[in-house]
Design brief:
By secondary structure, this protein is mostly helical. It has 13 helices and no strands. Helix 5 runs antiparallel to helix 6. The termini are far apart.
């Protein structure tokens, strides 16, 4: 009788865990709606106050964190998700990593919406001085992503450590959060810099510049969903699929347009707005601006070349494989 009661209790417990994602999805949608409502009364060119901005930051922190948890729950707690995990032989660490990449793709999508809105509104007016509130609003909301992502990366890393330790001696041992911060100081520093300094530039240190140029900076994230999908496809063993190849080519093209070709195009827009030829416009830019452009552009060119090299190797491997099959 006692064992039967325990069994029923266990079933009810698992049932509650399985449906845990339902209230979480409600929280997720609520934070998104509240974020939109918090700026719905603003004029197009209004500035975001610190009080309103802090609210957006908190909404963003809740949104990205809950989205990550919901993704994990859907894969680990639902029958469809468990079937997916079983089919592709995914570990808990793999699931956490896939969720991390999914949240990254959603954040990039929000950046693109912000960028398109900013460019459409500001670049068609006084491109040097016109602003749209969405640029500052999402700077507050999006800054939360970089701080959430530090925690998310820790969760992925810790799950991998636990998995290795359990495979070794069966004991469950991970690392604490502060140890992770110390051992991954570079990536943590990068996130704090982007989430902190990048946020300050868009909200307070722009020197009176409008949103046109910052809109293009937001659009640099357009390639991120394809980078995320590439990682997910690799994780589930689809590196040899045609989908992986097509996604890689789209990723390459998007990366080039939004992270490399974007810079000379923005300078062209600037030259046209100040009525100067292209090279005179470059010379007229403040030294700090020119240094910033070079600092941003060079890593993009380097990564693009690495991506081209990787894509050529994949395509070369495909061609070689086809030739081998024909010979047999």
């Amino acid at each position: 009788m006692k064992s039967k009661v325990q069994l029923i209790s266990q079933i009810k417990k698992e049932h509650r865990k399985t449906h845990m994602h339902i209230p979480l999805i409600f929280v997720l949608l609520s934070t998104l709606v509240l974020s939109v409502l918090s700026v719905s009364d603003l004029d197009w060119e209004a500035k975001i106050s610190i009080k309103r901005g802090f609210s957006l930051f908190c909404y963003g922190l809740v949104f990205f964190t809950v989205l990550y948890i919901v993704s994990n729950n859907l894969m680990l707690r639902t029958s469809l998700g468990q079937k997916f995990v079983k089919t592709y032989k995914l570990s808990v660490a793999d699931v956490y990593d896939i969720s991390n990449k999914q949240v990254s793709a959603v954040q990039a999508l929000f950046c693109c919406i912000t960028g398109v809105t900013s460019c459409t509104y500001s670049c068609t007016r006084d491109m040097l001085h016109t602003s749209h509130y969405i640029s500052e609003a999402y700077a507050w909301f999006g800054a939360a992503y970089f701080f959430y992502d530090i925690w998310s990366m820790y969760k992925v890393h810790n799950a991998k450590i636990v998995q290795v330790s359990m495979n070794g001696d069966g004991k469950r041992s991970g690392v604490n959060f502060f140890s992770y911060l110390q051992t991954h100081a570079v990536i943590v520093g990068h996130h704090i810099f982007i989430g902190g300094f990048g946020f300050l530039v868009i909200t307070y240190l722009r020197g009176g510049l409008g949103d046109c140029f910052f809109g293009f900076v937001y659009l640099m994230e357009a390639s991120t969903p394809f980078v995320s999908l590439r990682g997910i496809l690799s994780k589930i063993g689809m590196k040899s699929s045609i989908l992986y190849v097509i996604n890689g080519l789209v990723m390459l093209g998007t990366f080039f347009v939004c992270r490399v070709a974007m810079f000379p195009y923005v300078i062209y827009l600037y030259a046209r707005s100040v009525d100067l030829d292209y090279f005179s416009a470059i010379r007229s830019l403040p030294t700090g601006c020119k240094v910033s452009i070079v600092t941003l552009l060079l890593p993009q060119v380097y990564w693009f070349l690495l991506m081209v090299k990787g894509a050529s190797q994949v395509l070369k491997g495909k061609v070689t494989k086809k030739k081998t099959l024909k010979m047999h």
